[in-house]
Specification:
Layout (H helix, E strand, L loop, with lengths): L20 H22 L4 H21 L3 H24 L4 H63 L4 E7 L5 E7 L8 H4 L2 H7 L8 E5 L5 E7 L23 E6 L4 E4 L5 E5 L6 H14 L3 E6 L5 H4 L22 E3 L2 H21 L1 H7 L12 E6 L2 H6 L3 H16 L5 E7 L10 H6 E7 L9 H4 L16 E6 L2 E7 L5 H11 L8 H7 L1 H4 L4 H8 L9 H5 L21 H16 L33 H13 L6 H8 L3 H13 L4 E3 L6 E3 L5
Parallel strand pairs: 7-11, 7-12, 8-9, 8-10, 10-11
Antiparallel strand pairs: 1-2, 2-4, 3-4, 5-6, 5-14, 12-13, 13-14, 15-16
């Protein structure tokens, strides 16, 4: 049986609320009547009422003084206590229930209510006046500060730039890190560039801290200038990526860092590409992760990553979706939609992007006509594809034949698929003419970032930000700091947040439900290359942490000396080339170019050649345990102890050519007789007894 409770009607009493003029007067009169009636009935001494009234008057006077109330309010409260106590004493003596007593009590109540209302209005007006006075004081202080800033910087611009400004306003930044001066330029065709080119001189004249600048930019019209002056160096401190993982959109902008005034700077990549330049150690990899974090939070973007350096840029965004055994974690999607770490996979990805773009041009004509636009309406149902290509600018300028093929496809994506919602983010190691010489990069990549990290070599800012004045590399000597410019924001100092692997994992889990799925039309156009991108066979390298990744086709098909593409060498992974090996190789090539190539020394007669050509790649390979000198090499490496031996030292010991020794040692390592300890130029082979 269901019981229905009927809500009661009528006034709702707030018993926690304080007394107003009416309720206060009513409470006072009814209280006095109750005390007088009770006292008269019980024979209470009338003097007690006067004593209580006097105590109440004194207590209210002290509390009112502590609260800073006016004398009018203090007098009203004290008088109310004394009048009430006097009436109670008189009523207890003459009788409280007479018409005279009741009439006088009613008169007292009306008087108390009217007086309380009057004093309340007076106190409110007095409080408002005090607040207004404080605001006027603050305004006077701010006005004085602004006037001082205006006068100081007006004189400074006159002294440094020889330009007379008329300062119209000074805005103090809410972050407390600087201010902006809005000024009118003098007549005669003076432009803001005249001030912008003296940015460093103005900063030095103002004695600004390192990392703080005075940057001039366009005002509300061409006769006005805005001068942003930073007084606190926010670039020196490290800030972690914000923990707010709320959804974003390609249309609302994606935060990539913050300016010197501590405000976020966003990029809008619906129609434009982006370029990120940063040498080694400048924080470029961290910047790539910040970019991927922003894309992971968008509800209308799918991110495809190409990183031919073992896929390291995108691997951190995939592994949180894999368990310890390499299987997919239920309910968790990778932070990126596709990852290519090899030339073959990158070619498949670019072919799929081109196929999607061309198919969208035809299939969505009705939708674009309905929306009355010549651009594909991007949404969660039809997401934009962002291609993040690590060191992509180097791919575009590479002279390698295979890289040229990738470069051609990348340029086709940039040139043809803007309207269909496929854009790129390229990274580069340096801001040089060789990297940025391609007109397509400069024209389409309107969102540009240069991370300096204090690096000067190869950092020509004028090539990335042509026309920008007053930008110097030494203004951003901190890791993760540099310059950023977009069509919406002029090139200026900025810094990106620090993002760590544990936060990447948190972002992948927090945003897994935000990722869109590729629309059916695009999925069909991409074909099996896209549908099988997460198959076990194509992602085995992501889960294999014990072995090194396989060599690329180019590395497997060429010898260490860059000679013939010998099938005898294709099954062997390429050797790491040290600086010493490179120098020896160059020296040997010079000798071979001038003299006939001599046969390699050997400690025993070489076996007869099995074919017409006596290929060095096939020599000493007829024995399952390798040639005889391998045993001597293994013994020498064992005698070297835990330090091991470099291949060059082994070659000197056994009297063999270094290329031959490297091949033999590699085969011995595959048989388990040796262990290769990779350490760049200091890579060595170690005996298993000392590993």
């Amino acid at each position: 049986m269901t019981t229905t409770t009927q809500a009661s009607t009528g006034p709702v009493w707030d018993w926690a609320a304080g007394h107003g003029p009416v309720t206060g007067a009513l409470s006072a009169t009814t209280g006095a009547l109750a005390v007088a009636t009770t006292g008269a009935a019980t024979g209470m001494p009338p003097g007690w009422a006067l004593t209580v009234g006097a105590a109440g008057a004194i207590g209210h006077t002290l509390s009112s003084l502590r609260e800073g109330l006016s004398a009018r309010t203090i007098a009203m409260r004290s008088a109310s206590w004394l009048v009430g106590a006097g009436w109670t004493t008189w009523a207890m003596t003459t009788g409280p229930l007479t018409w005279a007593a009741l009439g006088s009590l009613a008169t007292i109540g009306v008087g108390i209510g009217a007086t309380a209302r009057s004093t309340l209005l007076y106190e409110e007006a007095r409080e408002l006046e005090a607040i207004a006075a404080d605001e006027r004081q603050v305004s006077r202080e701010l006005s004085a500060e602004r006037r001082a800033i205006a006068a100081e910087w007006g004189d400074r611009v006159q002294r440094v730039c020889n330009i007379t400004l008329r300062v119209l306003a000074v805005e103090i930044w809410p972050t407390g890190t600087g201010f902006t001066i809005d000024a009118e330029l003098p007549a005669g065709g003076t432009t803001y560039d005249r001030i912008a080119q003296h940015s460093a001189a103005l900063s030095a004249d103002a004695r600004l801290p390192h990392g703080c600048t005075a940057v001039a930019s366009q005002g509300i019209h061409q006769g006005r200038v805005l001068i942003d002056v930073t007084t606190v160096n926010v670039l020196s401190e490290e800030r972690t990526y914000p923990s707010d993982y709320s959804p974003l959109s390609i249309y609302t902008g994606i935060p990539w860092g913050y300016r010197t005034n501590a405000e976020e700077i966003c990029v809008f990549l619906r129609e434009q590409c982006a370029l990120v330049v940063g040498p080694t150690g400048s924080g470029k990899t961290n910047m790539v992760h910040v970019i991927l974090a922003g894309f992971a939070r968008t509800t209308d973007v799918l991110t495809w990553v190409i990183d031919l350096n073992a896929g390291s840029a995108g691997l951190s965004w995939v592994r949180p979706a894999l368990d310890a055994n390499g299987a997919s974690v239920e309910g968790v999607r990778p932070g990126i939609d596709w990852l290519a770490s090899t030339y073959e996979e990158a070619a498949l990805m670019l072919d799929a992007a081109l196929a999607i773009g061309l198919r969208r041009k035809v299939a969505y004509q009705d939708l674009m006509a309905q929306q009355n636009t010549d651009q594909l309406p991007i949404s969660a149902k039809i997401p934009q594809i962002m291609l993040v290509i690590d060191e992509g600018a180097e791919i575009l300028t590479s002279t390698d034949r295979s890289m040229k093929t990738l470069a051609k496809k990348i340029l086709e994506v940039i040139r043809m698929l803007r309207a269909m919602g496929i854009r790129t983010v390229l990274t580069a190691l340096g801001a040089t003419g060789a990297v940025l010489g391609n007109l397509m990069i400069r024209r389409e990549a309107k969102a540009r970032v240069v991370l300096t990290g204090g690096e000067v070599e190869g950092m020509d800012l004028s090539k990335v930000f042509p026309g920008a004045r007053g930008l110097r590399v030494d203004q951003a000597p901190f890791k993760g700091a540099g310059f950023m410019g977009t069509p919406e924001s002029a090139a200026a100092l900025f810094k990106n947040w620090r993002i760590l692997p544990n936060q990447i994992r948190d972002i992948v889990h927090a945003t897994t439900g935000m990722h869109p799925t590729l629309d059916d039309i695009s999925t069909k156009a991409a074909g099996t290359a896209y549908a099988s991108r997460w198959d076990a066979g194509r992602t085995a390298w992501m889960r294999d942490t014990a072995n090194a990744p396989a060599a690329t086709a180019e590395e497997a098909g060429q010898s260490a000396a860059g000679g013939l593409n010998l099938s005898a060498l294709r099954s062997q992974p390429a050797d790491p080339v040290t600086e010493e090996d490179a120098a020896v190789r160059a020296f040997m090539e010079q000798i071979d170019a001038q003299f006939a190539t001599a046969p390699e020394p050997a400690s025993m007669p070489e076996p007869p050649a099995p074919a017409v050509l006596n290929l060095s790649a096939l020599r000493d390979s007829d024995d399952d345990n390798g040639p005889a000198w391998v045993a001597d090499a293994v013994a020498a490496i064992k005698a070297a102890g835990p330090a091991g031996m470099k291949p060059s030292a082994v070659a000197d010991t056994v009297g063999k050519h270094r290329k031959t020794v490297r091949s033999g040692l590699k085969a011995a390592a595959e048989r388990g007789e040796l262990i290769y300890r990779e350490n760049g130029p200091h890579s060595v082979y170690v005996h298993p007894d000392h590993a």
